[in-house]
Design brief:
The structure is a homotetramer of 474-residue chains.
Chain A (H helix, E strand, L loop, with lengths): L1 E2 L2 E3 L2 E3 L3 E7 L4 E8 L2 H20 L2 H17 L1 H12 L3 H21 L6 E4 L9 E9 L3 E4 L7 H12 L4 E4 L6 H11 L8 E3 L4 H9 L5 E5 L2 H10 L4 E5 L5 E4 L5 H13 L11 E5 H16 L19 H16 L3 E4 L3 E2 L2 E2 L2 E4 L6 H4 L6 E7 L2 H9 L3 E2 L1 E5 L3 H10 L4 E4 L15 E2 L2 E2 L4 H7 L1 E9 L3
Parallel strand pairs in A: 1-5, 8-9, 8-11, 9-10, 11-12, 13-14, 13-21, 14-19, 18-19, 21-22
Antiparallel strand pairs in A: 2-3, 4-5, 6-7, 7-25, 12-24, 15-18, 16-17, 20-23
């Protein structure tokens, strides 16, 4: 069985705590790694702090070179990385390949942005007091960063921590999810081959004690977390003086106006609703369709949902596979059943087979049902009709969350209203909320998050501007 | 009779060439001023060159203060300035007041932008060669500027030369149109009260010789011209090493889609088509209406065109008055008659009374008729139907000009197509091409111009970036 | 005796808790106001939440107009406001006038910046997935803000909360210091005359219970605090999901290189060291002078420190007056005495007379003494020699704080080293750390703060970017 | 003998006019190519115009990919390209390799910038008139471009036309110098392998008739010329309505202050003065050294100048070789001799051997001598002392040219004065005027040029902003 040493302070090591990695489709242990405890974390922090100076001193051509080498390294190992990813996470191979491609992009963007850090050159002479003075603002790296990434994008959501950290000249300790730690360790192998200053990166699956300690340790200057809302908001409280970025979940809404291209809307909603069994922060969970086209949309949508191919994630043509573990499959089943008991109707799906839960479409739901109000994180979509566009906006906004929303329309007024009124971080016109490219600002409002990611935006968060004012004349 | 001395090198002077100013409505001489000849131009150039240093040295709080005082000075004299403007130009008072308000805005924007000149702070270390170096780019004033402004916006188009020139730290010589020189001379009185360095502004109505000389003189570093295409493009050729900005004319098109709010479109097209008798660079000359709504649009448009109140520009409720002179009225009449001979039909208007030409709507025109292909600069509009949107875009593009275009639609696809395909400097959605606010980038493509105006954009044109590279470490 | 009603939800009201305002120089109560309790806070929050919509909807010309009217209103009442400020705070009149002038500037800048909110227009097509799509990012107001301002700049540090809040379209509740609440209430009178939507501003001196409640209330979306580090960092922990900006204190360092203009350095250090008795966050507390010029600097500095005119803050020529209260004077005395016991020498000053503490210069100090390591917030300066420039940088950095630093030098290498190495938010070349203009980014690193202020920068913090992605072609 | 077909409208072709390429060191014909005449130019223009649409339509990921492939293609053929370049131009191999590396960079930067075209998203509601409206500005390709590049950087100065043209979505016709046409033809081979739309690039060495025609043809929308001032300024006059960018020459000055690191200054001045025998637009021609260090600088400079290794450009260790042709060598000799006759002294050099002219240092020159006032374009440097820094600035400014200047100093006041007062496009602190990295803004003032190059800046020049204004609310 393959073993993966963890990457601590620039070395691949083993610890006293072995950790098994399970293939959720076969339910077999297929790899072994180790968990870091407080001792290894301490090493990682110490070496991270020591690396701050060398990281800060890297000229931009050097940062660029390192990040380009990583991007190319990932591209070179593309298929292997995708297979490993699929095996850990149960993510169908075609989506796993897409995720690896995004990691390639992520480091490419980081390489480019590392040369374009936001600088300002300011007039200071707006008052007589500042006459003959001028100012510069250059961002400096904030210092050692801790990143925490979830299971559902084992590679790409770690890339969204590591790439901007390195681009901004910061060391980073990355804690991957325990169920899917291998992709980032494979990434660490690639990074280890570059000229990155020693100790600037650690990738540590952690035991609980180390995990907690990392959140509170004051030597760490920033915490970037992607995961569940409850955990995230608590971390903000415990983080002390450090900066915090939270990318949490949601129950994203989609609005389909009667002016839209229905075929296009259906196709995209199928992907947004069922890709990776809905285990996606911006999963298209709640779809609102204008009455005039509700029946048409619904029929087509159900038809396509039924055609999704179930199977082994390692097959090239699998569309949908098992959930990450049995516990999750049970939870999804329970939420759907509860909804049905409260009056919802199942249009398709609703069956669980082991860890697999069918693509499921509900209608007749009420906003307070769990399938509507909480993050389902499963292959479940609610379909509801609406009358006028303004009502649809209200329905989407009737949520504690606000990550992204999708709006299918060809009506300019509706575009404007959607952008003005939807309480979310991003509005996608003629696309699902699930749309994301890696250089766009990404993040939620309300309970869905704090701050913005997206390589360029993370880089800004990971830097501290320093002002220089000087006399320009004598 | 009131006399207006001209403003030469910081003094109000008389010359050997008196000049009469005529009220085009009454056809009476109502004021006297003087024309500058080569001698006065030489004085203005000499003092302008001397003022370059003092202008460059003004701290931004001082530039701001001067420009704010001008803005407030204009506001304070608002009504008097509007009456004077209306009297020179025949522009109805309500539009004259609007023009003065825009002048207030123009200097306000210039005041604000004078503190926000575009500066850059650059990483130089993108290659090993530039390691440990960094760069700054600050814009420096280009030097003495010549501005030439036309009769149709006697105040505001001069403001678009003077305000950015002062904001960018440049002296300027402004040559107003001979028919409407008084507004800028009144503005000079206001500016003369401020702390502007002596000799930094001259306002000189000129004889032909001085005018030509100003174009070719190499001490002048930039020429900013608003006027007719034929004159403008010739100046570009004669300008030698200096920079040139040309704001020329056009035969702006409007597209009204069946998805539009027709009432709104009609109302705006009435203003765009007939305000100041169409003597506007971005006059809505050619209106294309989708077949389904052509009749409705046409009926409403004609009805409103007929209701426009004709009269003395000094009356508060006059909508439309005489053209700038008899020659122009004759020319407009001739072009319309020629179109009719070639098959066009007059839906309303078509009559000339002295210098007044009725609001006129033509249909059945052909693209090669003068009323379509040239700039009519009169109260004449052509109305033609179109089938699909793409054809309307082609019709608008079938022109040597490309200043602005208006598109009334509520269809997102049409918005996108209009923006991608229309060959113009600006596309106005649900507005006429005549729309302009003073801080937006303004200017044409094809034969309509060269470069962009709009206070912030003019300021950039009037400055020369200078790079500083220095070592940042040792 | 003059009474000042507090400004709650758009009305001037009294409460059950009267509050006396004392002139620290005469020690007399000279005015009365009231403290808000939980009930008034609830009203302010309720009306603030209701005003969110109206504030968001203000077009920029309206925001600009309101803010300009406030700026002009302050300018109009300049001298009265300064006298009131001086009377509450003991701040000598000439500095009080300067503070009012800065408030005029603050609202002017806010007016200008309200028209220039940071927007982005993004290419989305960096990958095939985003082909034919484009993105917009517009900032939206974050929602109701709570501002807490300290006693030492009773007007201007409140302006740094209120002006950016209004400019960014947010309602705000401002809690001034209890000892100096009147200036902001006077400001509220000015603001009350404008068209600001009802209930968008409350100015509430508060009792402890209301104060605590404001920090934790989740309807408030952002907390902007200026005050002491211990209070500030605790608030960050209690703030829940809201954004937090902290502007805390420091023990700012100054470095005087032998290449500097010593006379200039002395003059500026006198102001930076003793203005308002050092009760300034960026008070020049620790001055390090290169050995070659240490004696010369010290002699001149002491000479000038001795000449500072003590007296009633309301006298035009008073340079220095009493501290804010007796408790503070005692504390300063105690810290100095403790330093002397531990080996420091007093070069001038060291005497307390009632609430007045003399301008005091110490040498022979050690970094761990309170006068060095903590924020003295009194008219006390330490003067110490250094050998080479790099050592001086280390001395300044040997602190838990990092707000601003001043460096007097004419040596380019030293400028570079200072900017690269000093651990502060801002480095002032040939100026004291006390330098601040209101549009520059301002804020500290280490224990000195979290985030940046300065009108434009605060506005950014007070807004939430929302992304719109749309197809650009069809 | 190797033959190089020319690249016309996407095909490698021969014409009726063969053209021989000479190795200036051996004086032998070593390759053959062809000259395009009016007929081939017509083909190139026609296909260029046709390619405008396809170029405009390329999504940014596609532009990025094409440009990255070109960059990598150049890197792959690095040594071969450098040898070919050295053979045509007589440029020593080490400099030729550096030039190829810059070409790699140029396309890399262009790839990156093609994704970051400058876009604006504007508030329009600064006045009531613009309420509820917003604006976008996207740059559109200007259309077919003509580039003319000189002999001295056969590859890199062509890259500065081609790379930004492609990055901005424009077709381009490139006319290389007749003496060094091969490098760009080799580049065309690389580009031909990519997915660039057919006919978007032509590389045509031209006969005189075609060359003239290209300047005046109105289908070409922009002319970007690098070459001699007299030719350039005349083109501006003949260019009609098209945009013009001129990168011309100069007689760049260097100032060495007594505060500078003399050794560093000498080393850099040797490179700036003699690299490629001074056949560089930003050749360090006039060196002014402060009196206190004049002797020291002069001695070291002469010593190093004497050590430069003369030889075959194809040898790895050759520092200096022949001029581009005999005519040039004769001209340089004549200018130096004329200077000596008028009183200048030769400190080293002054001898011609065939096409080789020795590294030559003159002193005792007068500003009006050709070696001072004109662009020498040869390995000749004048060394003169100065008293105070302000005088040195005047000496540098005493020129018709203003490209770049170098200033060696460690004095902050001198840095400020240099930046404020030097009349040039770029000031290099502690570096020679010869310093250039390919992403910096580059270009001259006075007679040295018109506009700015440097990939990002050229891209801006090659695009036309188009404004979209739309209502944002209904």
């Amino acid at each position: 069985m393959k073993t993966y040493k963890i990457y601590c302070a620039g070395s691949f090591i083993e610890t006293d705590t072995p950790h098994q990695v399970i293939n959720p489709y076969t339910r077999e242990v297929f790899a072994r790694t180790w968990l870091a405890g407080p001792e290894e974390l301490e090493q990682a922090i110490t070496s991270g702090k020591q690396a701050e100076k060398a990281m800060k001193a890297l000229p931009s051509h050097k940062r660029h070179q390192i990040l380009m080498e990583i991007s190319e390294g990932i591209r070179y190992r593309r298929r292997d990385l995708a297979i490993s990813l699929a095996r850990q996470s149960g993510k169908p191979l075609k989506f796993a390949l897409g995720e690896i491609d995004r990691a390639v992009q992520g480091f490419l963007i980081a390489a480019e942005e590392s040369k374009r850090l936001p600088r300002e050159y300011l007039s200071i002479d707006w008052t007589p007091k500042g006459e003959d003075m001028e100012g510069l603002v250059r961002p400096f790296p904030v210092g050692l960063i801790a990143g925490i990434s979830p299971f559902n994008f084992p590679m790409n959501l770690a890339v969204h921590k590591i790439a901007p950290a390195l681009a901004s000249g910061n060391p980073i300790i990355l804690k991957p999810a325990r169920s899917t730690p291998l992709s980032v360790l494979e990434l660490a192998e690639i990074i280890d081959q570059t000229d990155l200053p020693a100790g600037a990166l650690s990738v540590l699956p952690m035991d609980r004690e180390a995990g907690n300690q990392m959140v509170t340790d004051q030597r760490i200057r920033m915490l970037s977390f992607t995961g569940s809302p409850s955990v995230g908001w608590k971390m903000k409280q415990q983080a002390g003086k450090k900066k915090v970025a939270l990318e949490l979940g949601g129950n994203a809404g989609v609005v389909v106006s009667s002016s839209a291209d229905i075929e296009d809307a259906v196709n995209k909603c199928i992907v947004g609703g069922f890709a990776y069994s809905g285990q996606v922060c911006i999963h298209a969970q709640r779809i609102y369709v204008q009455e005039e086209v509700f029946e048409e949309f619904t029929n087509r949508f159900i038809e396509k949902a039924k055609k999704l191919r179930k199977g082994d994630p390692l097959n090239d043509d699998t569309d949908i596979s098992v959930l990450i573990d049995q516990h999750e499959a049970n939870r999804v089943e329970q939420w759907v059943n509860e909804a049905v008991e409260q009056g919802a109707r199942i249009l398709t799906g609703g069956q669980k087979t082991g860890g697999y839960y069918e693509p499921t479409v509900l209608t007749g739901t009420k906003p307070e049902m769990k399938v509507c109000s909480l993050e389902i994180f499963g292959p479940v979509v609610t379909l509801e009709p609406f009358g006028n566009f303004s009502q649809a906006v209200d329905k989407v906004n009737n949520s504690n969350y606000g990550l992204q929303a999708g709006v299918f329309t060809n009506n300019l007024q509706e575009v404007n209203m959607a952008y003005e009124e939807l309480e979310v971080g991003g509005v996608m016109i003629n696309h699902v909320p699930t749309f994301r490219v890696d250089h766009m600002p990404y993040g939620g409002v309300k309970d869905s998050g704090f701050g913005r990611e997206g390589i360029k935006y993370s880089i800004r968060e990971m830097m501290e501007p320093k002002l220089l004012i000087k006399n320009k004349d004598f």
